[in-house]
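Co-fold these.
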Amino acid sequence: MKVYEYLTSYNIKPSVQRIAIMDYLLKHKTHPCIDEIYLALSKDIPTLSKTTVYNTLKLFVEHGAAKMLTIDERNACFDGDLSRHAHFQCKVCGRIYDIPLEEKRDEEAESMIQGGFTVEEAHRYYKGVCPRCAAGNAQKS
Amino acid sequence: MKVYEYLTSYNIKPSVQRIAIMDYLLKHKTHPCIDEIYLALSKDIPTLSKTTVYNTLKLFVEHGAAKMLTIDERNACFDGDLSRHAHFQCKVCGRIYDIPLEEKRDEEAESMIQGGFTVEEAHRYYKGVCPRCAAGNAQKS
DNA sequence: AAATAAAATTGTAACAATTACAGAATTTGA
DNA sequence: TCAAATTCTGTAATTGTTACAATTTTATTT
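Predicted complex below.
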């Protein structure tokens, strides 16, 4: 299985729950929060505990297999896409969009490293209103 | 008084509490959280309620007189510096540093606007270890 | 200046996201 | 198969934030 090896490549011991959660992350680019993942997977794994979802995502982030987004004030979101990209959250519907970044070096990060900082994460995000909502098709996701 | 007019310029009716909170924000570039502000000002204003600090900062953000940072997962931080700049949070001591941004246009934002997005906020931040902590002088702030 | 209305502040209670923790279940390794 | 280690579960505790009603303060009208 594919996700199985993906997890092991990050030194994460696979389990039914971990595979299901990573699989969900890789297949749903919606930047889901804990609850979304929990509710979706509970259908297949009825015994799933929300604590496990918390623990597992924390594990993923620690092993570098997922990223945590703190764009949304209310709750943390998670991203299985590890490529360099920015995010945009619509203030109306709450959706988080992926925004491609021009491939160019990050001068700020470079000068920080010069200044003695160790840079482990770089986040960039925007907020505003998405085209969908601007068009009046506002709908809570 | 200076802060008084500063508040009115943002259409915020000044009060003892609001002036004290804005004054604290302008004088302390530490990106304080609610609790830091509350604890610091309680000494001068013993009747101050934490709810007031919450309400007031929400008001400031709505009127564009302050910015809320969601870098720290545990609690929101606030910044009275409205100029364009990035932030760096040290994972060891938790300090949030200001990082100057080269003055150049934000191509990503521009292309998003082209794509129909309304961009109201742009955030950029980094995480890692600061020089102080790297040198071993780790100390929780 | 007194009375009234409006706005701001306070404190408690409710709420929601997250974490701690101990017991149950599962996996691993002899 | 049995013991040890790991993972998972569910409840309880914790914490940041918000709702709300009562009180206080400020502004307005008479």
